[in-house]
Design a protein that fits this description.
The complex is a heterodimer of chains A (247) and B (219).
Chain A: H1 2-11, E1 29-33, H2 38-49, E2 55-58, H3 67-72, E3 81-84, E4 87-90, H4 92-102, H5 114-140, H6 143-164, H7 177-181, H8 183-196, H9 207-218, H10 220-225, H11 229-237
Parallel strand pairs in A: 1-2
Antiparallel strand pairs in A: 1-3, 3-4
Chain B: E1 5-9, H1 14-25, E2 31-34, H2 42-47, E3 56-59, E4 62-65, H3 67-77, H4 89-115, H5 118-139, H6 152-161, H7 164-171, H8 175-178, H9 180-190, H10 193-198, H11 202-216
Parallel strand pairs in B: 1-2
Antiparallel strand pairs in B: 1-3, 3-4
Helix pairs in contact in B: 1-3, 1-6, 4-5, 4-6, 7-11
Classes of the chains: A alpha+beta (247), B alpha+beta (219).
Main location (chain B): cytoplasm
Function (chain B): Is involved in the conjugation of reduced glutathione to a wide number of exogenous and endogenous hydrophobic electrophiles.
GO biological process, one term (chain B): glutathione metabolic process
Chain lengths: 247, 219
């Protein structure tokens, strides 16, 4: 642990809620992340929505994976990873549920009722496994597969358009786990479509999702967490290796 | 008011087995309804319109889809008997991490063992054994993945054990030779009534594989 602390001293950046300096050793929260990754940002969104201070550590996942990353996520070697009092959790949606279970202050991102919880988990999983996978391949996969993946992603969006319906957020009146899971659709997708010239989601065909994305991105806390548009656009102009970030 | 619990399932499905086990662990009476996956019933299409897959758990008329989500739901609805997930948030997160790992890795590599030939099959066998060894390492010297008590991760994995004889046969290797500790774990699990009731005989799976291959159009 002492070795890791030395490492993180040199990498320490002010976390986005503006809290710097020494944190109570009993409650040390660190996020190993990647600034442009929607998976990484999911974790930061939930921490910030709940007002939990944390130290953010940018990982050079495309270049040299740090000893800390390899230690805290030996199985997948990907970001995001949450380290809480020296113990690590990987996989963004697992991390999000861990945060929900551990800190009882701030807004909840899962419903209380078991059936509603199961529904929320179902749709979060759907976003991750159907939509995100297809989107990744549609924009960055092998050329021969892109058309097929675009159709998959499009179908996924149709289901989501139906699921959100008239609700303000997938979570209802407030942001929930499904909204968090769908962050790529709410923000990244528009930028990727602009840069690539390939459009899967239009405002005309998906008016509910369009409205939702505006409310999502417009949220006071979410907007502070999102990476800058120009920086993302520049990133997407170069070939994107998705192997470094995980679900 | 009595609970009405229906499970739309398919007997060889290692995913359906998870839900069966969870319901048995909780002593919940349920109506098991065998589905024909090549001639999907109206109820299946109505209750899982998004994926049209089994298992589907229908509780008082409301469907829950995705096997590990069902296991968690069952644990939350019937919390008093045999908790399936740890109460500690960190332990719970670890359980979900490994459930996710099993979901992402085991089926895909196993499928190559019975569904592929030559180099592809060899690659599948190799990857499958590596994944099992990772799981074996995670199990360590514990009785179950969660420690002393049978739970979520055991439930996520044990259904695959009913397919091991088929993998051995079609892959022409021995999983037990490679992963003896995992086989020992599996044998402990099948001693539990919930598991014994929920897993089909291994030889039935061996007989099923050629039927499955024919249905999906592979030799």
């Amino acid at each position: 642990i002492a070795q890791e602390n030395t490492y993180t001293q040199t990498q320490r950046t002010e976390n986005q809620t503006g809290l710097t300096g020494k944190m109570n050793q009993e409650e040390q929260v660190q996020v190993l992340g990647l600034w442009g990754s929607p998976f990484s940002k999911r974790v930061e969104m939930v921490l910030q929505l709940k007002g939990i201070p944390y130290e953010y550590i940018e990982e050079d996942v495309y270049g040299n994976k740090s000893p800390m990353l390899l230690k805290y996520n030996p199985i997948h070697k990907k970001v995001p990873v949450l380290v809480h009092n020296g113990r690590s959790i990987a996989e963004s949606l697992v991390i999000v549920e861990y945060i929900e279970d551990t800190w009882k202050t701030g807004p909840t991102i899962l419903p209380q009722d078991p059936y509603e919880r199961a529904m929320a988990r179902f749709w979060a999983k759907y976003v991750d496994e159907k939509v995100m996978v297809a989107m990744g391949k549609a924009f960055w996969g092998p050329e021969s597969e892109r058309e097929k993946e675009r159709k998959e992603a499009y179908e996924g969006l149709i289901s989501l358009e139906k699921e959100i319906g008239d609700k303000r957020f997938f979570g209802g009146e407030t942001i929930g786990i499904v909204d968090i899971a769908a962050d790529f659709i709410g923000y990244w997708l528009g930028i990727v479509q602009e840069v690539s010239g390939v459009t899967i989601m239009t405002a005309e065909e998906f008016p509910n999702l369009k409205r939702w994305s505006e409310d999502f991105v417009g949220n006071n806390i979410i907007k502070e967490v999102l990476p800058p548009k120009q920086k993302l656009a520049a990133l997407f102009k170069t070939p994107f290796r998705s192997a470094a970030t995980s679900g | 008011m009595a609970d009405e619990v229906i499970l739309l399932d398919f007997w060889p499905s290692m995913f359906g087995m998870r839900t069966r086990i969870a319901l048995e662990e909780k002593n919940v009476k349920f109506d098991y309804r065998e589905q024909d996956l090549w001639n999907k019933s109206p109820i299946l299409l109505e209750m899982n319109p998004v994926h049209k897959k089994i298992p589907v758990l229908i509780h008082n008329g409301k469907p829950v889809c995705e096997s590990l989500i069902q296991v968690e739901y069952i644990d939350e609805v019937w919390p008093s008997k045999n908790p399936l997930l740890p109460s500690d948030p960190y332990q719970r997160a670890q359980a979900k991490f490994w459930g996710d790992f099993i979901d992402k890795k085991v089926y895909a590599s196993a499928r190559l063992i019975w569904g592929a030939k030559g180099e592809e099959q060899e690659a599948g066998k190799k990857e499958f054994i590596e994944i099992l060894k990772t799981l074996e390492s995670e199990l360590g010297d514990k009785i179950y993945f969660g420690g002393e008590t049978f739970g979520y991760v055991d439930i996520a994995l044990i259904g695959f054990y009913s397919w091991f004889e088929a993998y051995d046969k079609f892959g022409n290797f021995s999983i037990e030779a490679e992963c003896p500790k995992l086989i020992a774990w599996a044998k402990r699990c099948v001693e539990r009534e919930s598991v014994a009731k929920s897993l089909p005989d291994s030889n039935k799976i061996v007989e099923f594989v050629p039927v499955l291959k024919k249905h999906i159009g592979i030799e």
